[in-house]
Amino acid sequence: MVQKNPQISIIVPTYNESQNIVNILKSIRENVPKGISTQTIVVDDNSPDGTGKIVEDYISNIKKITENTIDVIHRKAKNGLSSAILNGIQNAKAETIVVMDSDFSHPPQIIPKMIETFKQYQCDLVVASRYITGGNIQGWTTKRKLMSKIATIIAKKGLDVKTKDPMSGFFAFKKNIIQELNFDALGYKFLLELLVKTKGINVKEIPYTFENRQFGSSKLDSSTIIDYFKSVWKLYRHGKIQATNEKRNSVRFFSKAARFFTVGASGFLVNYLVSMLFTAGLADFWYIHANIFGIMASITSNFVLNKIWTFEDRDFSRKKTLSQFGKFSMFSSLGALVQLGMVFWLVDSHDVSYPLALISAIATAAFSNFILNKKLTFKEKLWN
Ligand SMILES: Nc1nc2c(ncn2[C@@H]2O[C@H](COP(=O)(O)OP(=O)(O)O)[C@@H](O)[C@H]2O)c(=O)[nH]1
Ligand SMILES: [Mg+2]
């Protein structure tokens, strides 16, 4: 007989949850509406307190109900909550996946409401939310509440996430929305990565009260917090890259050219200020010497701004940066020569007025400098 896939897969990651796991499995079973088939997947990271074994024993002792199965994934070591969730997802057979903690902070009574919400709103993702009307947190210290709030604000502002509780660990989604996505699964916050990496999905939040655990202890520690910042940074970069990829090549080309010219203009100012400073301010240099400092300062500031802003290259490893700076300075000097030569040639042999000759020469030198630096200094393709 061919086994039909369950309707819902429920992923329950555990690390040292020996006092909670059996009760939560029972409670999940009791709360899922009758007639809905489930696959509960416990993902245990070789808990020293024997959680994995407890689940195995529980599975072999309970009466088998084919509509409600329990699987357990034993991982070798504590590899983090997000990656445990991802592992669970990879083993989920159902189209609808619920993710929840095993310590009763996420009340299983909400699961039927999640199922109802999918039906009612035809949505792709249901988030059980602490931060919408009707939602609440009980039993957390003020410090922990504050940490959660700050992390939420960082996520919402920094990553432009609209969901009110993007840090929720209690959510459900349709499997098809994660097709073709690659997850870093770093740290604690799988939902946040899901929200950032999916596009145009229909998200619905439903309120619930998070209650701090009665048994066992929290696994959140300083490394979790560091992982959080790492993952926000990664997701931020991800968003940036996506946004640039979406723009048409021509738009990107000209916006970079515009940045390059803006930097060039700022170089004039740096050049002027530094030259003045060395003749009249800091020191009393001969004006030609002062101007050499001015030129050097402007080439350096132009280089740094173009590297960081125009070409968005944040790799400051010493060898690479020095070689880029060498090329950049060379092209800048070359540009100056081209400019001089062209002005001379236009004014002298073609009777072009000096202002017009100067503008054409500056434009030509700046544009060729842009092309040379794009291709050879920052090693970008010309047209993207
Ligand atoms: N498999 C696995 N589960 C984890 C890991 N870290 C936390 N968990 C589980 O994830 C859930 C939430 O963790 P918890 O310590 O309660 O975090 P808190 O509620 O934010 O204090 C619990 O069910 C934990 O057992 C991990 O590294 N691996
Ligand atoms: Mg907890």
Write the layout of secondary structure elements.
Layout: E1 8-14, H1 21-31, E2 38-44, H2 51-61, E3 68-74, H3 81-90, E4 96-99, H4 110-121, E5 125-129, E6 136-138, H5 142-159, E7 171-174, H6 190-197, E8 203-207, E9 209-211, H7 222-246, H8 249-281, H9 287-310, H10 318-350, H11 354-377
Parallel strand pairs: 1-2, 1-4, 2-3, 5-8, 6-9
Antiparallel strand pairs: 4-7, 5-7
The chain binds guanosine-5'-diphosphate (GDP) and magnesium ion.
Guanosine-5'-diphosphate (GDP) binds near residues 80 and 101.
What does this protein structure show overall?
This protein is α/β, with parallel strands linked by helices and 384 residues long. The protein has 2 domains: 8-246, Spore Coat Polysaccharide Biosynthesis Protein SpsA, Chain A (Alpha-Beta Complex); 249-377, no CATH class. 54% of the residues lie in helices and 12% in strands. It contains 11 helices and 9 strands. Helix 2 links the parallel strand 2 (38-44) and strand 3 (68-74). Helix 5 runs parallel beside helix 7, helix 8 (249-281) packs antiparallel against helix 9 (287-310) and helix 10 packs antiparallel against helix 11. The mean pLDDT is 92. Bound molecules: guanosine-5'-diphosphate and magnesium ion. Residues 101, 103, 105, 213, 218 line the site of magnesium ion. Magnesium ion binds at residues 101, 103, 105, 213, 218.
